[in-house]
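pipeline/complex-builder :: batch 7 item 3
reading input block
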Amino acid sequence: MSSVSSKIQDVFNEPGCGKNQGKSEKERKKGCTKQLQPGGAAGGCAFDGAKIALQPITDVAHLVHGPIACEGNSWDNRGSKSSGSNLWRTGFTTDINETDVVFGGEKRLYKSIKEIIEKYDPPAVFVYQTCVPAMIGDDIDAVCKAASKKFGKPVVPVNSPGFVGPKNLGNKLAGEAILDHVIGTEEPEYTTPYDINIIGEYNLSGELWQVKPLLDELGIRILACISGDAKYHDIASSHRARAAMMVCSKSMINIARKMEERFEIPFFEGSFYGIGDTSDALREISRLLIERGAPAELMERTEAVIAREEARAWAAIEPYKKRLTGKKVLLITGGVKSWSVVAALQEAGMELVGTSVKKSTKEDKERIKELMGQDAHMIDDMSPREMYKMLKDAKADIMLSGGRSQFVALKAKMPWLDINQERHHAYMGYVGMVELVKEIDKALYNPVWEQVRKRAPWEEKTWEEVADAAIAEEAAALAANPELAREKRRSTPVCKCKSVLRGTIEDAIVEHALSTAEAVSEKTQAGTGCGSCMGKLEKILETMDHWHPSPSENKSQAQQAA
Amino acid sequence: MATVITPKKSCSVNPLKMSQPIGSALAFMGIKNCMPLFHGSQGCTSFGLVLFVRHFKEAIPLQTTAMSEVATVLGGLENVEQAVVTIASRQKPSIIGISSTGVTETKGDDVDAYIKLIREKHPELDPISLVYVSTPDFKDAFQDGWAKTVTKLVEQLVEPISAGAPRLPNRVNLLPGAHLTPGDIDEIRDILEAFGLEMLVLPDLSGSLDGHIPDDFTPTTLGGISLEEIASLGRSVHTIAVGEQMRDAAVALESKTGVPYTVFDRLTGLEPNDQFISLCVRISGRPVPTKIRRQRGQLVDAMLDAHFHFGGKKIAIGAEPDLLWALSQWSHELGAETAAAVTTTSSPMLQRIATDEVLIGDLEDLEARAAGCDLLMTHSHGRQAAERLKIPFYRIGIPMFDRLGAAHQTIVGYRGTRNLTFEIANMFIANGHEPTPETWSLPKENENAGTAAVTAH
């Protein structure tokens, strides 16, 4: 473990890390080993981080030394893309059992490496250390060294058991592993003045391929992308690049800085998210290359490409801007995306109501302030309940986040778009920006929201209930007002065929002192159609006595009685 | 009778197996107002959580004791204590389900003793149940973690009851295996309700992970069986366990409360469902309802229609023992052959599978054995193998991350069996090879054998 802890110290002393530079020496020594809160922690471990960082190297066998949980529960869940080998998608694990825990798992590890080389013949095997073998003292460095000698192939130990720290530390430990064992061990077939490295880009959903055509057109060669769509040989010979671009500052700054120190490869931090940022990144790449000896005309060509692509992207976004302007976005993501996506969304006319800064560095936060103003709503750690309320209260029209928090939005019946690693759409470069805007538009204007927000019919008042209520209201009004009641009674149609109202019938009965239904019928035409109202006429005759007649009725009733 | 083989290779390639602790956590998720907690490092939880999110497409409550390197060496008492206290104050659960992992088992943390100490120190935790299950990652597999957890829940939370005590004549218990989906549980509930029977399910994923829209956002599990209901399991008149893995839990429940039990090793297929319906008749004293009679008739008709397509087909199955048993036996009854069977852990059911050998292995083994098969049945990770083999692929089991509705896939009861039968038969029909004029042509002399074999296919 001593080698791991010294590596960790080394990583924490990383001068390229702004967070570290801001600390006193004593604080720096403590490193980032802030104890996570039991019962209140979420997120991956160092092993997870190491695997994520290196797995996009496509032709390498990635062997996880540990019990089934570490690989069996997690393999095949990242959307990196490969232009060639698919070996990286194969899950290899030693799946150690009780006996191994008691007697040590080194033998099984050695045999596993042997089996992999015999069956799959990869250019290299990467061996990942996990908690349990680290605890029982399996020396993977020694096993890898022995296996490497025996089989004549690089076998690279990645010493990053889960319990040493969080995911982000694992990213860096993975970087240390390839710095120690891979980078600089082979030579490229040839070099050009236009060779660059891209560091911290994982080619998720094939995003690298959204940018690569631009570089190709400019004649700029990606000597190695660390580690998206990379081959072992690319990484091994990446030390001959002229310049480097670091895409994710949090995960692999140690690689960028140490390559600058060891091989004099200057680097800058940039982003391919958003139109302006993509242009800046292209300019910066050209500038660094020219500084390192590339012809100056490269910049002119770069500017020409930028001008053409920007115009093309703006034209593609234009039809959407009208629909998206003023829409409010809640952004829950980490690291570099917290600002690079902010810029991208603002370009589309959207308004940000908040962004999370949980995983952001100090510089990341500064950039957000620059973009969103000093009083930017930065959310350090938002509980699911708060997110839910914020969305439910319609303070935001859409949430962009990683897959884990998606259900908060979906249960609140609010649009949601995945911008984290598990997403299926690529959003990088000029074309990616247009893609993002399209996706947001699709999500916001999907008619499904109207559908799902409708209440179930039985939750609303039924027409019967509405009618019942109206009837009750009317009955109350009639009971309170006898004159109204009388009017109402008299205006009820009795004979529908001949349209005879009850009032007409009553008047006829009184006036002519009628006593039979036939007589009423003769006088008023009621019942001369289909005849179905004859019964009603009899009923009226029967009930005449029980009325509370008006003064005129009184008189006629007196006549009748006489 | 099958021979069970354990492979001699050292490296597991493309794992079929998942770890015990996440099986345990899933069982805890079927309890109302529960927070499952892994005693281990953060990644142990993160991997399980992501796996379930991708499978169920639901928010998943799962916490960690966040063991660091130092805490692991010194022992995890403080971490367990802090985790329990934090969860109690933040999420206010009725129960915290603690599962150990490889890390804390290697160190040898005595969590039962920790819980005693924590109980003494924190009287405010008295209203919260703490259930601990030992589930090392380096032993057994997913369904074992599930089964052990259910047994532990029975032992710790069910109220003992004397043999002669009065029972509720219309209430039965269901102990579903880890391979039953929320849809399966709903189907069994439907059948019992048709007989006028009520059912308590331990654990009940049908109310928690069946993909409904809740009225409020809760940080713990939704739905599921409540602690009061678990305590009262002894008052039911009968216990039905589905899957051999649940036998221990059923026995534990009987020895504690005297409730008689029946273990159904599967509920997929005509025969086991006939037995199940007969049991319902016996318990309820009612005749078989018309609805169920109709469903049975439909299944029989479906089997008749489908057997033409199943006959002689070779199926490769990769699944946990109880699911493997159910699928292989059901397809065998329709005339298909289980040509390749790979599973994760040992079980008494494996020998009974109608095939030559059952391998405790991984998807690489399954892929090697599935060449020439007509269908591959396993979880979503099998898709790459099916692509390479160019054979149809039916997703079943956990994880199923590249299709929607995993929670509602239903293969139990007459109705579930009928659906499964139709679905698979349709896959065979869709994949039937249309003959062409060249199909039966004689190989030309100059042509090499390889090309001829392809055209003859």
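note: The two ends of chain A are 122 Å apart (CA to CA).
queue -> next item
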